[in-house]
Each structure stands twice: as structure tokens, then as C-alpha cells.
UniProtKB/TrEMBL annotation:
Family under the similarity heading: Belongs to the glucosamine/galactosamine-6-phosphate isomerase family. 6-phosphogluconolactonase subfamily.
Protein name: 6-phosphogluconolactonase
Function: Hydrolysis of 6-phosphogluconolactone to 6-phosphogluconate.
Biological process per Gene Ontology, one example term: pentose-phosphate shunt
Encoding gene (name): pgls
Pathway noted in the entry: Carbohydrate degradation; pentose phosphate pathway; D-ribulose 5-phosphate from D-glucose 6-phosphate (oxidative stage): step 2/3
Root EC class: hydrolase
Lineage of the species this protein comes from: Eukaryota, Metazoa, Chordata, Craniata, Vertebrata
Keywords: Hydrolase
Organism: Sander lucioperca
EC number: 3.1.1.31
């Protein structure tokens, strides 16, 4: 791993603009290096944060972006549970990502058929649930041990809806850069165990250790409240 940075902000109001800058700077770097920017998105609070902050950036050019989803629920795109549907309504309508650059599942297929091939990502934006899951990789689930599939179906998600597709650890841990965004006091106990270790099996989020890439944990003060490790403290004007 290229080093883990745990960065604490007073609140998500300061975290959001720094996350948007991280996305922009990694996009510029990727486009200079290989002509396109491959971005993996997650749902949860990231949807509203990115939809507010990315369109507010001056001179954001998304014409060479390729966007996919770190996990997706198998529901129709107009269902409020669809991660793609949320981003479409709130973000994709405001930035110039070409339609051909947005990779979605085909929600009319059966869950075993709609996990498609993805690739090496420049940046994955991940959330973490209070149970320590990330993507749709849940504690104690057999998918945690998946090594052959890049994207896998899941039909028994403990969090509804039950049918989803998810990136697996091999693709997550091959990314150039992974950034978790975790805010709010409900995340404090699990964040401590993920970052500082626990007795018993590591939580899925703790198993995200990019082999050759960067790892960021971008959290706010309430989420960081129980941490005893050294952290960086930044405000809204910071660059990562
Ligand atoms: O598919 C899901 O069930 C959610 O997308 C979920 O994985 C979410 O990303 C995390 O629970 C973090 O949620 P917050 O971003 O709201 O903290």
C-alpha cells in the first residue's frame, strides 16, 4: 500500500469540498497519464455530497471520465433504492460525463447474469456501514473470500434490498486510490475497530488495503471521536 491517511474534518461541510478536489486532482492526473479517468462510486451519503460539491467546482471537465458503481442494488433505475438512479437525478444531469462513460448494471437481468467485467480503477469512493460492510461485502459473508470474480452477485444481502452486485476485494485492492467517506457519531465504534484493530475477524472495510495504491479515510469529528491513533486534521480548503 502507498500509505494510509486518516484525515479528520470538523464536519461533512468541510469534508465535501476536499473530497471534490481529490476527485478532480486524481482525474487530472489519470487523464494526463492514460487518457481517461475511471471512477468507482458508492451510494449512501456520498450521493448528496458529490452532487453538491462536484458541480460547484470551477472548470470541471468530465468528458474523459468512465464511471462505474462499487456496488449496486438489483432494482429498476427509477426505484429510489437504485444508486445509479440517485446519481442520475442528482449529479449526472449537472456534469458532462458522456452517457457512454457511465457503466451500469442491466437491471432486467437475473442477479447472476448482471455482474459484468470491470477494470483497474483510478479512484474508488467507498462508504462503510455501521456493521463494517463496504461495497456489498458484509461481515461473515462467503463473498469476502471471492478471489476469481471481479464483480459478484449477492442474493442474500443482510441489508435490504437483498439482491445486489458488488465489486470484490481483488478489484477494490487493485485500485490506484481508494477513499472512504464516513461521517457521524454512529460510525465511531466501528471506525475505531476498523482502523485500530479488533479481536475476531477483521471487518470488511478493514480488508480494503490497496496493494500498490493510496488509502484515505476521510471522516468527521463525531466519527473520529473514539480514535487513539494519530490522525491529520484538515479544513475545507485543504488539498489531499
Ligand atoms: O448499499 C448500501 O446499503 C449503502 O450504499 C451502504 O453500503 C452505504 O454506502 C454505507 O452504509 C455508508 O453509508 P453512509 O455513506 O450514509 O455513511
Amino acid at each position: 500500500m502507498a500509505g494510509r491517511r486518516v484525515v479528520v474534518f470538523p464536519s461533512s461541510a468541510e469534508l465535501g469540498p476536499v473530497l471534490a478536489q481529490l476527485v478532480k486532482s486524481r482525474a487530472e492526473k489519470a487523464i494526463i497519464s492514460h487518457g481517461r479517468f475511471t471512477l468507482g462510486l458508492s451510494g449512501g451519503s456520498l450521493v448528496s455530497m458529490l452532487s453538491k460539491e462536484l458541480p460547484a467546482l470551477p472548470d470541471l471537465d468530465c468528458s474523459k471520465w468512465v464511471v462505474a458503481f462499487c456496488d449496486e442494488r438489483l432494482v429498476s433505475f427509477d426505484d429510489p433504492e437504485s444508486t445509479y438512479g440517485l446519481y442520475k437525478g442528482q449529479l449526472f444531469s449537472k456534469v458532462n460525463i458522456p452517457d457512454s462513460g457511465i457503466l451500469t448494471i442491466d437491471s432486467s437481468l437475473a442477479v447472476n447474469e448482471c455482474a459484468s467485467l470491470l477494470f483497474l480503477f483510478d479512484l474508488l469512493l467507498l462508504g462503510m456501514g455501521p456493521d463494517g460492510h463496504t461495497c456489498s461485502l458484509f461481515p461473515d459473508h462467503p463473498l469476502l473470500e471471492e478471489t476469481k470474480k471481479i464483480v459478484a452477485p449477492i442474493s442474500d444481502s443482510p441489508k435490504p434490498p437483498p439482491q445486489r452486485v458488488t465489486m470484490t476485494f481483488p478489484v477494490v485492492n487493485s485500485a490506484h486510490c481508494v477513499a472512504f467517506v464516513s461521517t457521524g457519531g454512529s460510525k465511531a465504534p466501528v471506525l475505531k475497530e476498523v482502523l485500530e484493530g479488533r479481536e475476531g475477524p477483521a471487518f470488511p472495510a478493514a480488508r480494503v488495503v490497496p496493494t500498490n495504491g493510496e488509502l484515505f479515510w476521510l471522516v468527521d469529528d463525531p466519527a473520529a471521536a473514539s480514535l487513539t491513533i494519530q490522525v491529520e486534521r484538515l479544513g475545507s480548503g485543504a488539498k489531499l
